[in-house]
Each structure stands twice: as structure tokens, then as C-alpha cells.
Amino acid sequence: MWQPPACARRLHGWPWLAALLAAAFACVLETPTLEAVGDADTGPATDGTLPADAEATMLAVDLQVDANRDGVIDAADDDDEETWTPERGATFIANLDDDDDDRRPDAEDDRVNGDADLLDLAPVLVYRPAGLSPGQVLELRLTPATAPLRLFQERDAAWVCVRRPNEGVVTIEDPGPDVPALRLRLEAQDTRSPAWDGVVAVELRVRAGATIVGADQVALRGSPIIFPDNRQPLRALYVMQVATGAGANGPFYDAVRTNLPADAALFTVAGPDYGYDRWLQDAMQPGYQLFAGVGGARTLTTYLKVERPRGGLEHLLANDVLGPDHGYVYPCLTALCPDSSLNYGGNIEVVPPHSTGARSFPLGRLLVGGTGSGTLFGHPSPHAAMATAERDWLEAQGAQTPLLELSVGWLAVGHVDEVSLFVGDRSATAPHAFKVVLASPARAIGILRDLADRGLTSVPLFAGRVTETTVGEILSDSDLLTFNDLAQARIDTLRETLQTEVGLTADELLEVPALFEPYLDGADLTELAVAYSPALTNLVPMGDVLLVADPEGPHADGVDLFAAAASAALAPLRASVVYVDIFDSYHLGMGGAHCGVNLENAPYPAVWWQP
Fold first, then answer.
1. Which of 259, 465, 488, 533 is packed most tightly, with the most Cβ within 10 A?
2. Can you name the residues that pair with 221 across neighbouring β-strands?
3. Picking from 299-308, 328-337, 552-561, 565-574, which range would have the lowest pLDDT averaged per residue?
């Protein structure tokens, strides 16, 4: 297995891949097929006037994009090009990676940053109208004008920016009759947002003085950011190595390295550079953009930088992820976003592709946590809701919405991955290709009561740890038992939501033992729930291996009964379950194994533009 030599590696350590993609796409999109088109639009724009002899003076004007999404611009693209639909219309992506290694996203400047950057821009062709006279000018107008888009025109083997965001009508240079078509490229500076659905109309007009003597229009739409689920093949895993101190994570780090799929890259984040902020899951959410090309589609890995203003990992994306074919977007950059853990990556998960009733989610559905019904005792939750700017941005992507929300305001951290996680089902007979691992206080208490019935009340839990206790001590703590009964009631409500919204059956919900305890927030004395036993739901799916926290539960006959119950519950997944010590390194920090990694999974085979 390939291993990066340094603690933190840039993702553009794959230059051969960038070169291969550049060569493949340059052959197709850099030199599109030029064919005469006979059915070009010739009507005037609404702000132009026609002379009396209109029919004699109108020019055949043709503007073309890859409307049929085959990667080639030709006559087949001219039909139904004016309106973007799931069946027709060109696609593009936001140019958020860094192809020229200047440590800035390419969309931040007015340049085409090399041949690799050219692949991230959508081709546009302007066919020079026959009969164009020296006194007539070619104009382009983009609607909406506020769309974050540039246009570049090729002039003398160089690309010149001819249109910037918020500019109205722009004039493009006519190279003369020896050049049958003018080549342009469209660059998006940003993704879809609540203010823009990604659709843009590009209009070409020929103006003679104050008169429009020909016009044509095409429509394009920008890709959403799509977030893969845990079932997709693992391409890269981020983890921090903490070698020394009370929170050293050596066993966990070694287990990640040992069990990582051979074709997945391991990126070890340098602890000293990021204040030993080990919570990789919370810093970002991996996704991708997709636009049509020859033989399929081109992808650009695009991370969501979540609103997490403190901890240490705030600059990880800019410093160590940004590179060729890897970029990121930060919707809270200019917004007033509350500092709430509900904004973090651990509170954003993805339901795998499924259908339920009249609704279909071929690219899965985004799952987030909300404040819901307050604390377990019915008090208002101290958590602020997910930042409006972040939530609205997720909704605006459109491909995996509407968001499915679960109530997590009763948890001290407030993340959906604390109590539930979608994992792949390797069984070919299951109704879905996935199941949900679900925390179950009732199952944990049931195991303890069975031990008490056998007279084994002195059996320890968390033996040798600062929180060591016994079966008898837990069962004699009526407040703790009530607390877990209340937690179970909240998880039961969560279960009902998943069954209703996703169409899950009872056997697709895999219950694993879990114990919660009160966490007293010193600011307002509100009791919230935190994991008392290491969270078995907060696991790491790595291909055919599940990396699971060692629950350090009660033993009988040499067997950890919490781990045995978890293994039995996870057995239908047909994956190898590997238990690993995270007690001091993650559990005592109010997190779990999943919180300590970030998984970059492969894109879906389905495309976002199909109905």
C-alpha cells in the first residue's frame, strides 16, 4: 500500500492522474468539431429594433455548447438548446481547485491557469455569421448578470477574460473571415447557492449600430456538490497521529493503517500544525462536482468547509487539500453563522440511494441533526440550530434534498453520527443495499440485568479506566437508569423517522449496546447526554472492514458481552469487525472512532442531470 512520506500530504500527489485527464479531455473539448448549422436562431433580442427590410438584413447567428452532453460540440447540439432541462443543456462546474499550485483556487483570478485548468471550464463556440460586415459587432450577454461566471476568449493562442461577474453585455473580438468559429470558455467562480440555482442563459447578438440583426441563445447549468455515502469505495482517509500524551491514539492509528483498503490513500494530518485537533470528521464534508464529457463525466473533488471556527483544523482544506482536482467551498465565509457543533461534519451524513413511495433519491439524501425537542428532561436545548447559511446552501444543491432532519439537540455534542450511521449491506437479498447501526441503551441495560440475575453484579465495566464501575453500581443508580430510558425514547423516535422517511424495515436497523450519562453544561446548568460507554455506532466503514470502538463492557466467560452483542448485530453486513482502543484518545474527549477520521468516497455512477 502506498504511504505518504510526510505527516501531512497534499492531495495533488497524483500528477499522473491530472496529466492523463488533461490529455483525454483536451482531445475532445479543446478542439470541438466545427460544422455548419442551418437552423440557428435569427430573431432580434428584446432591446433591439429591426429595420424596414428586416428579412434581407437578418444574419444567421449560431452559438453552441455541449447541449447533448456527449463531450463534443457539433450539429447535434443545436436542437432545444435554449432551455436547460434534465434531458438537454450543457453542464459546468465551479473552478475551485488549484491547478497552478499558487495556493489559491483557480477561480480567484482572471486567468486560465494552464492546460489542466482549461479542463474545468465549459467550452462555448461562436460561429462567425456569414456576411458579417466590419461595422457589425458580436455581443454576449449572460442572464442572470449576477451569476458568478467569467468568459474567456481564445486570441492568438492565449485566453483573454472578456466577461466578469455582474458585467452586462460584453463585446467579443471578431478575428475575421479566416476564422470560422470563435472559441470561448465559461468559468464558474462559485457553486449553486440560495441566490442562484446554477442555470445561466448565454445570448449571442449581432449589433449594427442600435439594431440587433441576429441572435441565438443557449442554456447551461452548474453542477451541485454531491456527497457520497459510506457504501461508495474508499479513495482516501484522513487521520491525525497523536504519538504522545494522555490522549495518544497509537492503537487507533495503527488499526487504520493496517485495515485501510489497498487502493485507498492514507493522509496523516500533522498534529503540531493543527494544534492536535484530532476531530477530522468535524472539519469538512467530502463531495464532488460532475459535468458531462466524452465517454462519461469529469469529476472535481469538492469539499464543504463547515462552520467550525475553532479547534485547529480551520485551515486544513486551504493548506493540505487544495490542489489539482481537489477544491472546497465555504458557504459561511460571508455569513453570520452561529458557533454551534450542529454545523460540524459529524452532523452531516448521507442516506444511500433509495426510493420510497413516489420519491426517488438516485444520489442519496442528505441527513442532518437538528435541535428537535430539547434536552431529555424537556428543557430548551442550548444548541443553536445548524447555521442558516450552511443549511440553505445544502438545500440549494438540490440533488440530495430535501434534507432529512433527526433530533439530536438532547446530545451534548449534537451529531447524528453519535447515535446512528448508515453502512453498506453486502447481502444480495436485502431490500436496500444498506443498513443503519443504531445505539440502544435498552440492549445495554438488558445485558447488565442478565448478569445481575446470574449474581455477577461485581463484574467491572471500563476496567482500569478513570470511569471504571460495576454492573451493580450502574443498576443501583436509578437516576442513571432513568436517564438512559429517556435516551432510548429519543432514539425510538429517531428510528420511527428513519422507517417512515427511508422505508427501512425492522431488520435493517442494527441495534448495538450504548450507555449515556448526563453532561452538565456549566453555562446554563442544562443536562445533555454524552456517551458513557465508547460509542459502537460511531464506527469507521473501510470497505469490507468495520473499525469499531472497543466498548470495554462487562465480561463473562472471557467474553466482552457488549462487543459480542455488537458483533451479532453487525453480522448481516458480512464485514470483518475490528475492535480498537479509543478510550483515552477519543471517548474521554466526547467523541468516537468515526469522529477521528474523514473519508473521501468515490462518486456515484448516476449523474445529477438525469431525471
1. 533
2. 91, 199
3. 328-337
